[in-house]
Design brief:
The chain has about 525 residues and is α/β, with parallel strands linked by helices. It contains 22 helices and 13 strands.
Length: about 525
């Protein structure tokens, strides 16, 4: 057992527990001064990105808990440390699934807050406790707390969309949930004179629904470049706060410090939420990897992508569409539908921003290897038929091992079998070569490999380059010709030169596809150590 081992706040949602328990805290309090410039905020981020801990930190700040902030950015900036009454609602803590169950739990939560602040609600004069309208109850609570404590109220609402996401599959139930919750959220506007500050978080943005129609004063900072790293951990923060842990992993695996950083970056980094080219690590996965000193798929193990498969299958989108189409900010923030699932993939964290055109258009991509691994079961079955899930799982596991170990023959033989399962009727013979390229690209991408197609070099266009932390695979594809001819083109055109200066093995692979077999016919490889 290592002495002075770092305590990682994995899954911790209480800021007070974190600070008093000696857990490491990546200081995000420097964002507080800019947040105070406005009054109402909304922030969408994927699950397990620290939304609950952030609201707990804001609650501690507005409660004047100066003792919990010593040594943090905001400690010396704030001089007054005024204590405000706080209403903190966590929808994620509710057990109900049906909309009416959610509303009833919300009602009980508001009564509990009233009791904690010793506020007497006038329900006996107007309604019974059970029939107190949720909107009026929320309004009365805010008003009475403000009047009793002579200060305006801070409202913090976490995972507001739980009651909607649970019934997303049923349009009627979703509409019912929206209708039931709208009066509650409308209070954020009608009770404005009693509110000091309000912050709402959730996974989805639902900008085109009516749930926030009465609270149109919210400032949505989900795509605001100024808050690009408000949630998540930047690489600079990782190197600052966790250097001892990185050294421990380096020693355990016998890797260089830079190689450890590279592996962590490939696996857990890559999330970009705004036009600003600033990337963050998934905090849950990164902290778990550092704690266990193992590179597993932590984030995806806590949830499911089945809803993604449902929406993708019901739409006309292909995987290529998900990562190639340009979309507007409004589309990224819209309610997801079966006709357009892009916002669903983005808001849930399975896609992230890759490019911004400087105006209002974004192109999405898969954040990192962990997410790529999670999508294998979702995407690859869309390309094959007559192959059961267990067989696909075995094939992808074999492929992953071969790619990571550099076993080209095992890799190509497995690819040949997998591609042979692609339905013939979906292949246009005239576009066969491009289709084969796309299939290779998708398979490598879904296996967690940094993959790019048709890279322009000075002497021509490389068909595909796939990179792992230890190897670079440079592919040239031919159809009904020869693998030798393909490999010769890599050498003659100097396609691999750009990568030969790296410390990784460069593996040049010439591949020939057969239009008759509709799969890989032959291959030849050459390795440069």
């Amino acid at each position: 057992m290592k002495e002075n081992r770092i305590k990682y706040p994995i899954g911790l949602q209480s800021f007070e527990e974190l600070r008093r328990g000696g857990y490491v805290y990546v200081d995000k309090t420097g964002f507080i001064p800019s947040l105070l410039d406005k009054k109402y905020y909304f922030l969408s981020r994927p699950r397990r990105f620290g939304k609950s801990l952030t609201l707990s930190m804001l609650e501690a700040y507005f409660c004047g808990r100066k003792d919990l902030f010593e040594g943090l950015s905001v400690y010396d900036w704030e001089r007054d440390w005024i204590e405000y009454p706080v209403i903190h609602i966590d929808f994620n803590s509710m057990k109900g699934v049906e909309p009416d169950e959610i509303v009833e739990e919300l009602r009980q939560m508001l009564f509990e807050i009233a009791g904690n602040y010793e506020v007497s609600l006038p329900f006996e004069s107007y309604w019974t406790r059970e029939r107190y309208p949720i909107g009026r109850l929320f309004f009365d609570l805010i008003r009475l707390m403000s009047e009793q404590y002579k200060r305006n109220v801070v409202v913090l609402i976490d995972e507001y969309d739980k009651g909607i996401i649970e019934v997303l599959h049923d349009e009627q139930l979703r509409m019912n949930a929206t209708d039931l919750l709208r009066p509650f959220f409308s209070v954020l506007k009608s009770a404005d004179r009693y509110i000091k500050f309000a912050f709402i978080t959730g996974v989805s943005r639902f900008r085109n629904t009516t749930i926030f129609s009465g609270a149109n004063n919210l400032s949505d900072i989900s795509l605001d470049r100024r808050y690009a790293s408000f949630l998540g951990i930047t690489e600079k923060e990782m190197l600052t706060y966790f250097q001892p842990a990185l050294n421990d992993i380096s020693e355990r695996y016998g890797w260089s410090y830079d190689k450890v950083v590279e592996v962590l970056r490939d696996r857990y980094d890559g999330y970009r939420f705004t036009s600003e080219e600033e990337y963050v690590y998934n905090p849950f996965s990164l902290l778990s990897a550092l704690d266990f000193e193992a590179f597993q798929d932590y984030w995806v193990a806590t949830g499911t992508s089945k809803v993604l498969a449902t929406y993708l299958k019901a739409s006309k989108f292909t995987f290529r569409d998900l990562t190639r189409r340009w979309v507007s900010a409004n589309q990224l923030g819209s309610t997801y539908t079966k006709e357009n699932p892009l916002s669903l993939f983005f808001q849930t964290g399975y896609l992230t921003i890759r490019d911004f055109d400087g105006f209002n258009a974004y192109r999405l991509g898969i954040p990192n290897q962990e997410v790529q691994n999670a999508l294998v079961e979702l995407i690859i079955p869309e390309f094959v038929e007559g192959v059961d899930a267990d067989t696909i799982g075995d094939m992808t596991m074999t492929l992953r091992k071969a790619i990571n170990s550099g076993d080209v023959d095992d890799m190509m033989q497995t690819l040949r079998s997998l591609m042979a399962s692609i339905p013939y009727h979906e292949i246009d013979v005239k576009l066969l070569e491009k289709h084969m390229h796309l299939c290779m690209y998708v398979v490598f991408l879904m296996l967690g490999v940094d993959t790019k197609c048709e890279i322009v070099e000075s002497a021509g266009r490389v068909d595909m380059v796939a990179q792992t932390p230890w190897r670079v695979y440079v592919f040239e594809f031919k159809i009904d010709k020869s693998a030798e001819e393909a490999l010769r083109q890599i050498d003659e055109k100097g396609y691999a030169i750009s990568w030969e200066a790296s410390d990784r093995k460069v593996i040049k692979i010439g591949v020939n596809f057969s239009s008759k077999l509709r799969t890989i016919d032959s291959w030849i490889a050459e390795v440069r150590s």
